[in-house]
Amino acid sequence: MSHKFFVPGEQIVDDKVTLIGSDVSHIRTVLRLKAGESIQVISDSDKLLTVRLVEVKAKEIRGEVIASEKLDVESPLAVHLGQALTKGNKFDVILRKSVELGARSITALTTERCVIKTHQAEKKIERWKKIALESSKQCGRTRVLQVAENIETLEIFCHKNNDQDLKLVFWEMEEKSFLKDLKLDREPRSIAVLIGPEGGFSLLEVEKAREYGFQTVSLGPRILRAETAPVVALALLQSLWGDL
Ligand code: SAH
């Protein structure tokens, strides 16, 4: 099986592909591939490209597209997850599961009851991006889950996601409103989702989200752990309006 690389669109021009950075050392020194050999390339489109290496240099590798196959692995539903920071390595777990369940983006949020400090979490963003990339490769996605560049507040997340078709805050105190009962004019194509930390959202935060048009929804009568809630929410959303 040939090896898979995610390459930004601007590095592919008229079937000519340029690989730079860590991909170069991976191809040259880890995989020891030579000109004439092939790799697979994905470029945030729905295509899997087979690329034959033409020139393998120390700083740059050039190749050409020799085959292109259309893949249908991305959900028609774009879910943008606003996930409060969680303890230990739980955020890593949530990140991986979000990739598998086809989320489009994840934003780490600092909320009232978060015990993780923003400056500690900021150091993890680069690592999260790597996890998103690796997990996306592993589960055969053609788009890498986007990890927000900054840790954001709930309000900033709400503001930035103002235009999504549907805006939801999952809240364990909500008893009446369930996903399947939401009254919608048309099928949502994009959804912003808020999930709280171990300690949950405060009432003030829920009210703030409501001001921005977020609706509170329940995930059932039991309280789910912070790392379970996003998985269940994503699976349900993909099942209702996506591709699960
Ligand atoms: N504060 C709670 C637990 C929060 S669980 C407590 O300990 O009592 C972490 C997050 O998961 C919550 O903020 C919420 O977004 C989501 N969540 C967990 N269970 C839920 C449920 N039954 N319905 C809706 N959301 C839930």
Summarize the structure.
The chain has 244 residues and is an alpha/beta fold. It folds into two domains: 67 residues, Beta Barrel (Ribosomal Protein L25, Chain P), CATH 2.40.240.20; 164 residues, 3-Layer(aba) Sandwich (Alpha/beta knot), CATH 3.40.1280.10.
What is the element layout, followed by pairings?
Layout lengths: L3 E3 L5 E2 L2 E4 L2 H9 L7 E5 L4 E10 L4 E10 L7 E7 L5 H11 L4 E6 L7 H5 L2 H14 L7 E2 L4 E2 H7 L5 E5 L19 E6 L7 H9 L3 E3 L11 H13 L3
Helix pairs in contact: 2-4
Characterise this structure:
With 244 residues, the protein is of the alpha/beta class. The chain has helices at residues 22-30, 90-100, 118-122, 125-138, 154-160, 203-211, 229-241, and strands spanning 4-6, 12-13, 16-19, 38-42, 47-56, 61-70, 78-84, 105-110, 146-147, 152-153, 166-170, 190-195, 215-217. It has two domains: 4-70, Ribosomal Protein L25, Chain P (Beta Barrel); 78-241, Alpha/beta knot (3-Layer(aba) Sandwich). Helix content is 28%, strand content 27%. S-adenosyl-L-homocysteine binds at residues 170-172, 195-196, 199-201, 218-220, 222-224, 226, 229.
